[in-house]
C-alpha cells in the first residue's frame, strides 16, 4: 500500500514549487502511484482503466516487465552520454529502428523528446535546402520550443515570441474542413502558399498523419501525396511527425504516414518509442543526414544506453506480443462500438481515428457542430469516477482522445464504451 504524501499535500507543493503553467485533468486531480499494463492505481489502491496512457508515452503497457528489465539491467551496467564512447545499445537500437522504416530512411539521430526531434528535423530541412520557409498544417502540434512553436498552429499553445518562416496551410479536416474528405482540394492550398507566400522554393513541410493534440483528426485521403508532390516540386523536404501516430498505434500500419501511401524524407518520433522513457528520434536518408557534418552536432543524453535499451525492448515487445495486430483488431472493434453509441446519442458529432488512436467529438448541435465544451468535462469526470480515464483535446477541447496502451483488450473496450454510455445517458 501507498504511504506517501496525500494528493492535497502534493498539490500544495506543486503550487508552491512547480510552474504555475502546469495543468491537470479532473476537478480533484488523481494521485497516481502505480501502473500495470493498461491500468493505473491511485493512492487508495483504486484501479483505473487507462485509455489515454498511449499519448503520455506508454505503448507496451505501464511498467511492462521486459522494458523495466532492460532499463534496470543497463542502468546497473553503465549509463553515460551518447557521445564520446561506443556502446552496443545505441547502435543496436538504431539498426532495429531503421529496419522498421521504408526506403533509404536509415540514419538515426536520437533526442530526448518530440519537440527536440522536430526542432532538429526542421533545421535539417533548412540546411539541406538552403531555404527557410516551412509549411505546416493549421491545428497541428509539433512542440513548444522556438522553432516547433512556429510549426504548431493552435493559439492556445503559441506564446507571443518570434516564430519565423512557417506558413500554415488549410487543415484537411474531413469533419470541419471546407472540402470534406477531398484531400486534393485542400492540397491546393499548399501549392498556393508556395506560389504566393514564398520565393517559390521551400525548406519543407511537416505534418502528423493523425493530429493528436488537435483532436484525432485523420488527414483527408489523397491529401498527403498531393501536398508532398507540391513540396518536392518546390525543392522541399517532407517531414512526417510520428510522435503520436507511430509505433504500431494505428494498427493497420507501423507508421501513420504509411496509410497515405507516401514516403517522407524525414520521420520524427518520441512518446511510444521508449514506453515512458524520455527518448525521441529523427530518421532520415544518408544524403540528407550529411548536412549535420558541416558543424559539430551532438545531444548529450539523446539515445543514451539506458533509453536505447528501453527502445530495443519496446520494439521486441511490439513484435512478440503482436501489438500492432492487437491495435488493429481491438481498435476496429472499439471504433465500431463508439459509432453505435453515436447512433444513440445526439451529442456525439463524430467518431474517427484508426487503430488505438480514436476520437469522439461532442457537439451540442450536429448541424452547427457547436463544441460541447461543458458537457465533455462532465462526462470525463463521471467516467473517471467509474474507473475509466480518457483524454481530451481538439482546438475547442471537445474531443475525447482514446489512445490506450496497445495491450488494450476487447473487454477493456467494452468496459470503456459501457461506462461512456451510462454517463451520457445521464446528461
Ligand atoms: N509532435 C506531436 C505530434 C506531439 O503530439 C507532441 C507532444 N504532444 C510533440 C510533437 C512534442 O513532443 P514532446 O512533448 O515530447 O516534446
Structure, explained:
With 427 residues, the chain is of the alpha/beta class. The protein contains twelve helices and 18 strands. The protein has two domains: 158 residues, Aspartate Aminotransferase, domain 1 (Alpha-Beta Complex), CATH 3.90.1150; 256 residues, Aspartate Aminotransferase, domain 2, CATH 3.40.640. Helices cover 36% and strands 18% of the residues. α3 packs across α9. The two termini are 36 Å apart. Bound molecules: 4'-deoxy-4'-aminopyridoxal-5'-phosphate (PMP). The site of 4'-deoxy-4'-aminopyridoxal-5'-phosphate (PMP) has 14 residues, from α4. The site of 4'-deoxy-4'-aminopyridoxal-5'-phosphate has 14 residues, from α4.
Amino acid at each position: 500500500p501507498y504511504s506517501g504524501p496525500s494528493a492535497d499535500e502534493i498539490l500544495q507543493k506543486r503550487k508552491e514549487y512547480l510552474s504555475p503553467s502546469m495543468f491537470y485533468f479532473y476537478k480533484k486531480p488523481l494521485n497516481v502511484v502505480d501502473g500495470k499494463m493498461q491500468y493505473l492505481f491511485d493512492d487508495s489502491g483504486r484501479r483505473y482503466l487507462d485509455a489515454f496512457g498511449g499519448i503520455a508515452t506508454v505503448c507496451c503497457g505501464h511498467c511492462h516487465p521486459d522494458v523495466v528489465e532492460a532499463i534496470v539491467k543497463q542502468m546497473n551496467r553503465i549509463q553515460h552520454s551518447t557521445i564520446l564512447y561506443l556502446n552496443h545499445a545505441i547502435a543496436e537500437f538504431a539498426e532495429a529502428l531503421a529496419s522498421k522504416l521504408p526506403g533509404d530512411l536509415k540514419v538515426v539521430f536520437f533526442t530526448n523528446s518530440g519537440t527536440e526531434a522536430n526542432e532538429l528535423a526542421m533545421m535539417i530541412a533548412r540546411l539541406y535546402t538552403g531555404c527557410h520557409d516551412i509549411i505546416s498544417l493549421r491545428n497541428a502540434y509539433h512542440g513548444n520550443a522556438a522553432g516547433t512553436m512556429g510549426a504548431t498552429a493552435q493559439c492556445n499553445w503559441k506564446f507571443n515570441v518570434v516564430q519565423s518562416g512557417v506558413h500554415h496551410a488549410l487543415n484537411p479536416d474531413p469533419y470541419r474542413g471546407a472540402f470534406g474528405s477531398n484531400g486534393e482540394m485542400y492540397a491546393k492550398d499548399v501549392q498556393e502558399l508556395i506560389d504566393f507566400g514564398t520565393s517559390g522554393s521551400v525548406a519543407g513541410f511537416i505534418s502528423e498523419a493523425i493530429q493528436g493534440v488537435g483532436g484525432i483528426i485523420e488527414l483527408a485521403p489523397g491529401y498527403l501525396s498531393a501536398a508532398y508532390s507540391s513540396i518536392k516540386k518546390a525543392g522541399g523536404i517532407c517531414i512526417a511527425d510520428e510522435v503520436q501516430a507511430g509505433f504500431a498505434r494505428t494498427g493497420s500500419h507501423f507508421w501513420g504516414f504509411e496509410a497515405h501511401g507516401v514516403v517522407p524524407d524525414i520521420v520524427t518520433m518520441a512518446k511510444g518509442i521508449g514506453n515512458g522513457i524520455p527518448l525521441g528520434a529523427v530518421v532520415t536518408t544518408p544524403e540528407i543526414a550529411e548536412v549535420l557534418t558541416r558543424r559539430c552536432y551532438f545531444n548529450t543524453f539523446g539515445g543514451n544506453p539506458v533509453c536505447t535499451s528501453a527502445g530495443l525492448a519496446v520494439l521486441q515487445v511490439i513484435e512478440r506480443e503482436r501489438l500492432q495486430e492487437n491495435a488493429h483488431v481491438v481498435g476496429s472493434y472499439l471504433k465500431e462500438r463508439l459509432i453505435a453509441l453515436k447512433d444513440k446519442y445526439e451529442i456525439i458529432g463524430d467518431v474517427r481515428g484508426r487503430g488505438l488512436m480514436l476520437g469522439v467529438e461532442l457537439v451540442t448541435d450536429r448541424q452547427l457542430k457547436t463544441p460541447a465544451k461543458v458537457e465533455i468535462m462532465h462526462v470525463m469526470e463521471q467516467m473517471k469516477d467509474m474507473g475509466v480515464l480518457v483524454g481530451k483535446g481538439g482546438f475547442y477541447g471537445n474531443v475525447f482522445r482514446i489512445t490506450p496502451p496497445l495491450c488494450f483488450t476487447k473487454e477493456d473496450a467494452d468496459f470503456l464504451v459501457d461506462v461512456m454510455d451510462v454517463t451520457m445517458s445521464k446528461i
